[in-house]
Design brief:
The complex is a heterodimer of chains A (256) and B (637). Chain A has 256 residues and is an alpha/beta fold. Chain A is 29% helix and 25% strand. In chain A, a hairpin with a 5-residue loop joins strand 8 and strand 9. In chain B, strand 9, helix 25 and strand 10 form a beta-alpha-beta unit. In chain B, helix 5 crosses helix 6. The longest helix of chain B is centred in the N-terminal third of the chain and has 28 residues. Classes of the chains: A alpha/beta (256), B mainly alpha (637). The structure holds iron/sulfur cluster (2 copies). Chain A: Keywords: Electron transport, Transport.
Chain lengths: 256, 637
């Protein structure tokens, strides 16, 4: 029996121009969905069916896009979770986080919680689906992969390491059907109270390169981080944990 | 005796069969899409177009033009008179003498065709084309003998039955080629299709010395955008393909072919003929696509072209340099056909190769191919003190900066040009961040949807302001603004505006004395004509005038002017990057080095980038504005 695969898509935002576009991770989710289910893939968006960006996704060769029609301020979770339940999805693919809106990265987690399904985060590829289980490759830093086996149904958030999305073709995108259903009317209370600001790059820890030779520098740049420096504190008291963090900050000269 | 009538009967039968073939051929063209043409006016204009426009091109090869006039003219005249003398049996001796004259003329022409075919250059197709001179000679000789009695040179009935039998064989061979073959796809098809192609050409503006180089807009509402199958071409495009004489002049000029990329414009047109008639390319007897075997291609009017007839790499190898179109004596439009097929690949299949998809996505999201922040478009001019249209509203000269704004090398050209304009006190402003990519690359990559969207948005911006001239340093933007935006300029944003390339504009400034320049003291200089300035817009003179105004004597390359070779940078070719045996830019730089020049003057940032990408040692490369600015005599105010 073919598996029911659903990719969730949102309106992305180009980092340079701020213009709407197909979101990078979401379109990778569609690409992976196409690999798994071909034309049977169901692609779902909660929002406005007139949104031109949906045509960019459809240009990847989709016959139709399912749109759970709702206003911008409505919460996407209830509509999506009832849709997924009704459609008896086996695998749901999303981006890790959206490029616009709250961009909290919570959508896959909230859906998994509501549906009671497992979630696999930062998936690079789904290699095989057999006997109600999927072989999933997780993306780790520096191109490393970890293979895990997950029981269907599950939700996977797709990492930037997954296969890049194919080109979007104008003609098929234009002609794809927008299959609209009513979405939810529930206001997204969290969002209403948020204010949007441009994201700032997270501060990066300065690397003190002690290497003397080119070979050492190359190693420092590419080798996987050596463990041993960190410490796992599980049983210590809150006091001790706080002290450890405080010591580290002093040691790193973050505070003096 | 019945046998006396045999020649006449044969003539009539072959004529009829030929006509049937022609009607069948015409029905093949009608499988194409409708396109309005003025039938009467076209047919009336046809002889003039043949004598002037077509011969203007053939004339470049004096040997062939004389040969063709003698053979073709002789044949048409003889054919008419053959009907008069041998079918309608008009017995005036003077007519028979006229026929003899025409046949002799044709015989002489046919002899020269024969001579050329003794040792044909590589560009010519062989196969059936090799037998053509023999058929022509057979025709002429047969009818000369057949006409001798009518002219009173030989008594009637000379030679008896035997001679008539021999002559009948000659008639079958000669007319079989010339009439039957014309209708049924032999080499002589070119005469019939070529004549009609001249009459119903899709770009009638090209005749009478005109120029028509802008691509035609794609119909974005069509059920399939672009050309997927031969029958998706306009009917007169199909007719045009059928006019090809396989002379290979296009092949000899094609930079992609010379670089060993899998493209040969002649073979491409012949493959289109295979597609429109159905069948395979097994009978093709010319040079192949480099690296591809002949005989594997199959197609029919309703089969997808890229599924077996022409490979995608072939279509993406083209730089859209128009060298083939410029050279084609039959005025066939290769570039239109190639872009039509690319439109299908990009807009229907989403299969633009290599960086194509990324570049298109960037253009869509940021209005520039590099994906830079649109708000940084004017960063290059931070120290230039240039007025912006948003503030000025009205100005004499609008400087269209183009995407060179994002590229450090191109910025040097932009700055040089600005400095020259300031020295000449030009009232100039730029659009600043309101400018967008012209859409050139998107359009050549087959994404006409994006081109049209950019054109419309650019026009909307331009429509808000008043200016007399638009000047740009980028020949590609120049071409779009001048030749391709008009199709979308509903509100007349560019009506009455003069669109100029910076070399033309600078030349005006120099001629009027607004720019004072010192003599150039460097070494030898050659000039590379950018395709989009030269062949696309006919501007060969201004850049040369400018160089001469510096006292430079240009060391011309062998391929220059309308025969200039592309730098390899057009048509999105550096983006799709189809591998060949050599790089086009390297070949062009060899052309330049061969003149002994130390400096290559160009008028295009893309050419500059391509030619500077060639490994040293090689001549320096500079835009004309950079050369001028070094010689500028700055007046102290
Ligand atoms: S336009 Fe230039 S590259 Fe393209 S086929 Fe013609 S000659 Fe070759
Ligand atoms: S396309 Fe034109 S130039 Fe090329 S072979 Fe045919 S007739 Fe000659």
């Amino acid at each position: 029996m073919p598996h029911k695969v659903i990719s969730l898509i949102s309106v992305g935002r180009h980092p340079q121009s701020g213009r709407s576009r197909r979101a990078d991770q979401d379109s990778r989710a569609v690409e992976l969905g196409l690999k798994l289910a071909g034309t049977d893939l169901d692609v779902v968006h909660a929002g406005n069916a007139e949104e031109p960006v949906l045509r960019q996704y459809a240009g990847m060769g989709l016959q139709k896009v399912t749109v759970l029609e709702q206003t911008e301020t409505a919460d996407a979770i209830p509509a999506l979770s009832s849709y997924l339940k009704a459609e008896k999805a086996d695998i749901v693919l999303t981006g890790v986080r959206s490029e616009s809106g709250e961009s909290s990265g919570m959508t896959p987690y909230l859906l998994a919680e509501q549906l009671g399904w497992p979630i696999v985060a930062r998936v690079a590829d789904i290699v095989e689906i057999k006997d109600g289980e999927a072989q999933v490759l997780l993306a780790l830093p520096r191109g490393q992969r970890r293979q895990v086996t997950v029981k269907l149904p599950f939700i996977a958030s797709i990492d930037n390491a997954a296969q890049a999305a194919r080109q979007s073709a104008f003609g098929p995108g234009l002609r794809a059907k927008m299959d609209t259903q009513t979405g939810s009317t529930e206001e997204d209370n969290v969002r209403v109270n948020w204010s949007e600001a441009p994201a700032k790059a997270r501060p990066k820890r300065l690397k003190v390169v002690k290497a003397k030779t080119a070979a050492d520098r190359f190693k420092a740049a590419t080798a996987k981080p050596q463990g041993g420096l960190g410490k796992v504190m599980k049983n210590e008291s809150a006091q001790e944990k706080a002290q450890a963090i405080f010591d580290l900050l002093i040691e790193e000269k973050v505070i003096r | 005796m019945v046998i006396d009538w045999l020649p006449s009967i044969l003539i009539v039968v072959l004529l009829l069969l030929g006509v049937i073939g022609m009607l069948r051929r015409a029905s093949l063209w009608r499988a194409g899409q409708p396109e309005k043409v003025n039938i009467i006016a076209g047919l009336m204009a046809m002889p003039g177009r043949y004598l002037k426009d077509l011969h203007h091109v053939v004339e470049r090869d004096k040997y062939m033009s004389k040969t063709h006039v003698a053979t073709g003219g002789g044949f048409v005249l003889s054919m008419v008179l053959v009907l008069v003398v041998h079918v309608f049996k008009v017995e005036e001796q003077i007519v028979a003498w006229a026929l003899l004259g025409a046949l002799l003329l044709m015989l002489v022409g046919a002899f020269f065709v024969f001579k050329r075919r003794l040792n044909p250059p590589e560009r010519l197709s062989k196969g059936p084309w090799m037998r053509l001179p023999k058929s022509l000679i057979t025709f002429a000789l047969t009818f000369i003998v057949l006409t001798l009695p009518a002219a009173g040179i030989l008594p009637d009935g000379t030679g008896g039955v035997l001679l008539i039998a021999v002559l009948s064989v000659g008639i079958v061979i000669g007319l079989g080629e010339l009439l039957f073959g014309m209708g049924w796809g032999g080499p002589m098809k070119h005469a019939f299709a070529g004549a009609l192609h001249l009459a119903f050409h899709r770009r009638p503006e090209r005749f009478g010395g005109g120029r028509s180089t802008g691509l035609k807009p794609a119909n974005l509402d069509a059920s399939v955008i672009g050309v997927a199958k031969p029958s998706d071409f306009k009917w007169n495009q199909l007719l045009g393909f059928d006019a090809c004489v396989q002379c290979g002049k296009c092949q000899a000029m094609c930079p992609a072919f010379a670089a060993g990329q899998p493209l040969n414009p002649k073979k491409l047109i012949q493959d289109m003929v295979v597609g429109l008639a159905g069948g395979s390319d097994a009978n093709y007897a010319g040079s192949p696509y480099p690296g591809k075997e002949v005989g594997q291609a199959k197609g029919s009017p309703n089969e997808i072209i890229t599924a077996g007839l022409v490979s995608q790499e072939t279509l993406w190898s083209c730089t859209t340099c128009r060298a083939c179109v410029e050279e084609c004596p039959m005025m066939i439009e290769h570039v239109d056909a190639i872009v039509d097929m690319r439109r299908f690949l990009t807009m229907e299949k989403g299969e633009t190769p290599n960086k194509g998809s990324e570049v298109l996505e960037n253009i869509i999201a940021t209005d520039n191919p590099g994906g830079y922040a649109p708000g940084s478009r004017t960063n290059w001019a931070a120290d230039q003190n240039l007025a912006v249209m948003k503030d000025k509203k009205e100005v004499d000269v609008l400087f269209w900066v183009s995407d060179g704004a994002f590229d450090m090398r191109s910025q040097r050209i932009l700055r040089a040009f600005v400095k020259l304009m300031k020295a000449a006190d030009v009232d100039v402003a730029i659009l600043g961040d309101e400018e967008r990519d012209s859409g050139d690359v998107a359009r050549r990559l087959g994404d006409d949807a994006t081109f049209q969207s950019l054109a419309k948005r650019n026009l909307a911006t331009l429509g808000q302001y008043k200016f007399n001239k638009i000047v740009t340093t980028d020949p590609h933007a120049y071409h779009c603004l001048r030749n391709e935006y008009a199709d979308f300029d509903k509100d007349g944003a560019l009506a009455g505006v003069e669109v100029l390339h910076h070399t033309t504009f600078l030349n005006q400034l120099v001629q009027s004395g607004a720019l004072k320049l010192d003599a150039f003291k460097g070494g030898k200089v050659t000039y590379h004509d950018p395709c989009y300035l030269g062949r696309y817009n006919g501007e060969y003179k201004a850049p040369r005038d400018l160089l001469r105004s510096l006292g430079i004597e240009i060391a011309e390359m062998e391929r220059s002017g309308f025969r200039s070779r592309c730098c390899g940078g057009g048509g999105g070719a550096p983006i799709t990057d189809i591998p060949g045996e050599r790089r086009i830019a390297d070949m062009r730089m060899e052309d330049a080095s061969a003149t002994g020049a130390e400096l290559v003057a160009v008028g295009c940032q893309q050419c500059t980038a391509m030619l500077e990408g060639v490994v040293e040692p090689r001549p320096q490369v500079k835009d004309i504005s950079e050369i001028l600015v070094d010689q500028l005599i700055e007046e102290v105010h």
